[in-house]
Structures are given as C-alpha cells and as structure tokens.
Amino acid sequence: MKRHNYKNLKVWSLGIEIVDDVFKLTYSFPKEERFGLGSQINRCSVSIPSNIAEGSARTDKSFSHFIDIALGSSFELETQLIIANKRKYITKVQ
Residue 11 pLDDT > 70, yes or no? Predict the structure, then answer.
C-alpha cells in the first residue's frame, strides 16, 4: 500500500503556517478569552495539519476521509475567527 509523505504535501505545510499564525493571533486575545475561544481556535488550527498527517498513513480512501475532516476544521476555524472579529478581539487586517 502506497503511503503519502505528508511533509511533502503543500496543504500540510500551509496548515503548519496557519497554526503558527493563529497562535500568534490568539496570544493577543483578552486574558478571559485565552482559555475559551482562543483555546478552541488554537485546537482547531492544530487539527488541520494533524488530520492530514494522520490520514497519510492510511489507505487512499481513508486519507480522503481525513482530508475531509481537515477541511471541516478549516471551516470551523474560519467561523471562530469571524466570531473573534465580531467580538473585536481581532481585525480583518490581521
């Protein structure tokens, strides 16, 4: 069975960059939100490259399923960032 080398996948590399950017962003959240919305945003971002990496060790069919989960996490992350923007924890410029 052929395995994907996740470290060679551009989508995985972009996921790692997203994690780095998100952690920098949530560091500036109000103290009372660092363990609420901030923590959820961080976990969500980590889920994206993590699912890609985990799925890479599976069959192509399973890998596709893990890519779908990563995509779902990216939508969840976008929703949470919209909420953070509405709460004025971040601006669209960031």
Answer: yes
